[in-house]
Amino acid sequence: MAAVLVPTWLIQLKQRGCDVHVCAAPSDFLGKLASMGLPAHQIFATRRYSVWGLFKYTWSVLKLLNAERPRLVISHGAAAGVAARLAAFLARRKCVVTNHGFIFDENMNAAGRLTLLATEGVLSRLCSAIMFVNREDCATAESSRLFSRRTRYQYIGNGITFAPYEDLSDVARRRRAARARLGFTGECAVVGFVGRLVREKGLMEFVEVIRILGERNANAHFLVIGEAHAGDRGICRNQFLARLDEQGLRPAVTMLGFRDDVPDILPALDVLCHPSYKESFGRVIVEAAMCSVPAVAFDVRGCRDVIAHRRTGLLVPFRDVQSLADMTARLICDPQARGRMGIEARRRARQLYDERAVASVFCDAVVAALET
Known about the structure:
Rossmann fold; 6-stranded parallel beta sheet; 4-stranded parallel beta sheet; 12 strands; globular
């Protein structure tokens, strides 16, 4: 997500007169930033929560801060938020965090959730402000006694770039074109999964949805768009494929891997099945909505923010795979309801999720932090 969001936000910040530098792990992303006029620095970074990994991450950031001596440090991401705050504290630099989702959620066991909540509370004392893309996370920080009262908490929301989705007035034409590119013929329903191939995205639950719909002889084909990053926790691509093979489901599934043309693929879908365990912001749900494709998801943080139940999609109880399959089948079998939800989903997405507005709020918050 950082590769999508951060350049837009930081370019606006640069346009306001700030000298913006970016640090990240070695990748093509750094070259992209440099081509946009944003000086990019290679550091050690990890998405994993090991003590040694976070120590190396913090030390790498600290060395950069001591060399560049910035007035303000801004972090994006969970592990980055830990390393940046620790490094900024040690370097005596002001820090602002953009929180893209707490790693705990309401469905965790109580002891684990309390431990992570307390850890976030301690870290909240090492920054001057935390900006949240999720309203529920912001409310948690504001209401919990474990969080610092001196830190400013602000909900800024999130959004997507509308440009790739503007030429979608003729939904039927785009649907036919997208299906033709993918080699689909006839009128089979197409159900999509878009996301990293890890457990917390609900990939193994998606196997069960495929199995249940297959047992009902639903005329459906399934698209899986995405892969897993090397540093991801809970990668389960091989287990997913093995389960498909065990149950003879592989012919009904097309694996597309990472794609940079997702806006051209999403119109091929009839339904987006999004069984994620938690989200800070259901980006792919909004992207599908811009293609007039309704989503079925678990009723969890992030998903319930972007799905208006029974208006733009359907929400089912957490990890209730039977209900997930039932509601997916319901939309497959009811094209009129699917069409109404798709139209309303697009209208609502255009109204609420314009990333230009979010970037403006983000920049206002950063400038305010610089001035205090």
